[in-house]
Specification:
The complex is a heterodimer of chains A (111) and B (115).
Chain A lengths: L3 E4 L2 E4 L5 E7 L5 E7 L5 E8 L2 E5 L6 E7 L2 E6 L8 E8 L5 E3 L3 E5 L1
Parallel strand pairs in A: 2-11
Antiparallel strand pairs in A: 1-3, 3-8, 4-5, 4-9, 5-6, 7-8, 9-10, 9-11
Chain B lengths: L2 E4 L3 E5 L4 E3 L1 E4 L4 E8 L5 E7 L5 E3 L5 E5 L4 E6 L8 E9 L8 E2 L3 E6 L1
The chains are: A mainly beta (111), B mainly beta (115).
Chain lengths: 111, 115
């Protein structure tokens, strides 16, 4: 069983559209994250949720809205997509202050 | 605030040669340290971690790293690399007592193993 799974793996969409990326973890962790990896492979945290509550919001535009229906799921909705949103988005989960487990990533391409 | 610097963006090396990927960090508080590997079109996989205890940490695939507090470094080493080690390697830190536990990553080092 995949520990952290996110869908879709690839997403190609036009500017201005709204899209969602889903993430689920079966590790029983309380904390989940969204990270963004840009074209230079630099990874930066976007959001952190602990037991369905937002803990970290790293100055991400309001067009990005995470939603956590329960502690095993953390979805990312993006409104009015822009060219600069093209990146790979990684979901991760973590138990207390140990290592994070990452999903396979969603490669978002905005055209 | 923490920051992580990986001193080499690319490291080419021949198969069976030793390799060291360098990582320095900056933090005003105690940290946990990690090395992750990313194979092409894959997610990040944990290689090893330093949480406490022995400063020499052994990980998967024959990798090891040494935490040096005085030099604020956490360099990754392998005595003999394989072609299959070709990947992007990321050093990361998280604040020890922060409930958020977010990872701060270095810029990554591309390890290219040649036959």
């Amino acid at each position: 069983d995949t520990a952290v799974s996110q869908t879709p793996k690839y997403l190609v969409t036009q500017m201005g559209n709204d899209k969602s990326i889903k993430c689920e973890q079966n590790l029983g962790h309380d904390t989940m994250y969204w990270y963004k990896q840009d074209s230079k492979k630099f990874l930066k945290i976007m959001f952190s949720y602990n037991n369905k509550e937002l803990i970290i919001n790293e100055t991400v535009p309001n067009r990005f809205s995470p939603k956590s229906p329960d502690k095993a799921h953390l979805n990312l909705h993006i409104n009015s997509l822009e060219l600069g949103d093209s990146a790979v988005y990684f979901c991760a989960s973590q138990r207390e202050n140990t290592e994070a487990f990452f999903g396979q990533g969603t490669r978002l391409t905005v055209v | 605030a923490q920051s992580v610097t990986q001193l080499d963006s690319q490291v080419p090396v021949f198969e069976e040669a030793p390799v060291e990927l360098r990582c320095n960090y900056s933090s005003s508080v105690s940290v946990y340290l990690f090395w992750y590997v990313q194979y092409p079109n894959q997610g990040l996989q944990l290689l090893l971690k330093y949480l406490s205890g022995s400063t020499l940490v052994k990980g998967i695939n024959g990798f090891e790293a040494e935490f040096n507090k005085s030099q604020t470094s956490f360099h990754l080493r392998k005595p003999s690399v394989h072609i299959s080690d070709t990947a992007e390697y990321f050093c990361a830190v998280s604040e020890r007592y922060n409930q958020g536990g977010k990872l701060i990553f270095g810029q990554g080092t591309e390890l290219s193993v040649k036959p």
